[in-house]
């Protein structure tokens, strides 16, 4: 028996790090390939990040947009999801190190995504909250709701204005969607639920270093988005650079003007939707393989997404720097990661069969972003849509993209309900200390 | 103007502390009474505690059973919910102290509920988790899911058995419902989703100091509940007393046997559903008013729920010790708190009108508890029901009791879905450190 086992060849082992769009689709696409897949993630769930801003504003519950991996893969017998943090990669021994354990691989797929970076100011991370995880979203929700509660019994008008000023840094899709939703929900809540508050004191500030919102979108859509945000009452600051973030204020100056003076804005809630940086695992990999890292710590990959010199290691999604011929590096979009995940799965299957390698082509389906209720901008190939049509399309696409049927049904019902009633029922203040006015958190700089 | 304002009498001010069943129903019942209600709570939501065990086992999301108070009272113009912690009561000055602020009252309703007590062993609270708040429920969920993940790659069979042993202390309704649900979900998950685990290694232990489960229920129902739990595979230990709880084990000995030897059971997850104690605010009140406290720190109240000597201070629910004539002290049930809340509201209205005082009568509607899928026990007045009939009745009653229409619809859909698919989608591991095998948490005593 022992001899037989030793002689027997093991199946090709694929280790996938990260269960975001790239990792998840790679693992699913390998379902019928004769491989053994190990999907390692620090979380036990796939998170549908594009809807995270709705958790942050109380419209959806975390479980609505998070699919437990064990559930997703329960019928895919060749894939085992493993909860753990990868601490090292050894490309010579072909093992991944994780919590003191070694996981051997024949093909390695690295899709651990990106995290927020504060442009060389890690200390800003103490006051500004990003939007990458369930914990981030519930932290924003908590901060936002506590600000309203605290403002409702705050006697100092200066302090009340700081509490009611919500600042969002970065006007990409996440920042725009967050600003639109926050403007609407805070307006509704101060009008309807906090009788002691003056709705006109609420201010949602969207700060963007470029000259327009949604800089990667066509001009017509950028303009429409800006006008819609302004009509809804969002205070949009373009060409504005954040120079400091403290517990009680942000400092902003003109991004183009050489000697622009700094403006200090009192604000208790800062949401960071600006720069991202590849997962630090990228650096680990670069050290181990000598791979080149580009902007934001991304790993420069070959046309088949493999790491130069290592045809069995693939990097994809937000961690990969993929130059798409004349189109330049591909952006960090869910659609890119998803297509790359599927490509890598097919590529591994081809390699096992000894078929020749192909290269990755990104099929650009478009871009879309909502701006509050009933309004959105969308580019579908060459077509540009705005307003209600774009919004309905956005709803449709996002519902279909959710991983499980159950998520789709529950999100649809919740959305219909929210739309008709303006209610956002998932407005819970939870956390280690659910009390208002935590001096450290809200009065840190006083 | 100033003179006129000074002469004008203010409306009767009612301050309610706690938005559990008692406080919530008191506030709602005061809607049409000419009073000003301030509802103070440490949370911004009313929590439907009877379904908390379903959040702990991943069947429901926290938002499904938590109604934001601002939303609940948005159309009741005489009630303002206030988020804060009451730190003192001054019955002579008639003010409640809260976060350095003073809130004056004409009538005070104290309904701050109970919390778990560990029978003189507060250190057990480091290892055992109660089930009173959203955070408790998500902590249990996290511990349970991490135990399965960790066990799935644990090589030591002793350690694996400790990870797969889930201990519940106390076999009242909460303990029984928790044990039934945990047994079913852990069995399903090890069979279907953790291919590396042996379902027979999972063990759910229910420890009860009395001679039967559900000690306050009629004998027929107690016996049925015990049989059902055992058939489902719950290891029920009656007449058993917990003598120690550590991070890796509990110690149990016979409760009746004088010189019974201690048994040590290896277990990584301990859920506490045994003794409760009135909120410490009870002691504060007792010191301020000289009121008598009884078993579990409850305040002995008059027949109209007022504190002896203070006709304008009322204590109700889990904080009140109310001797119901021959029936003895009323138990800490949602139904008791709810009826007392409504009674106090009517009583305050009568006092304002100068009408004579009445006394509180508890209308005993019955008791019910589920034991996993399709099974429950219920007593409705003198009638006793078991099995599917009782279970359907339980579903019906609990759906109707949920505060908002939206909660009812979403919980109904989620339950139907869970029942048909065995799925429990709200199985998220969240928290400050979402990683498995946290040495402090799981290996604390090694």
Structure description:
The structure is a homodimer of 446-residue chains. Helix content of chain A is 33%, strand content 24%. Chain A is α/β, with parallel strands linked by helices. In chain A, the strands form eight sheets. A six-stranded mixed sheet of chain A has the order 5-2-1-9-22-21, with helices on one face. In chain A, strands 11-18-12-13-14 form a five-stranded parallel sheet. In chain A, helix 5 packs antiparallel against helix 6. The longest helix of chain A has 20 residues. Chain A is globular, with a radius of gyration of 23 Å. The interface between A and B is large, with 57 and 57 residues.
Name some characteristics of this structure.
13 helices, alpha/beta, 6-stranded mixed sheet, 33% helix, 5-stranded parallel sheet, homodimer, disordered N terminus, disordered C terminus, 446 residues
In a few lines, what is going on in this structure?
Chain A is an alpha/beta fold. Chain A has helices spanning 2-7, 21-29, 52-56, 69-72, 134-151, 157-163, 173-192, 219-231, 281-289, 334-352, 387-401, 405-421, 439-442; strands spanning 12-17, 35-41, 45-47, 66-68, 79-83, 86-90, 95-98, 101-104, 107-110, 114-116, 128-129, 165-169, 203-207, 234-237, 240-245, 249-254, 263-266, 269-272, 276-278, 299-300, 306-307, 310-315, 320-321, 366-370, 376-380, 383-386.
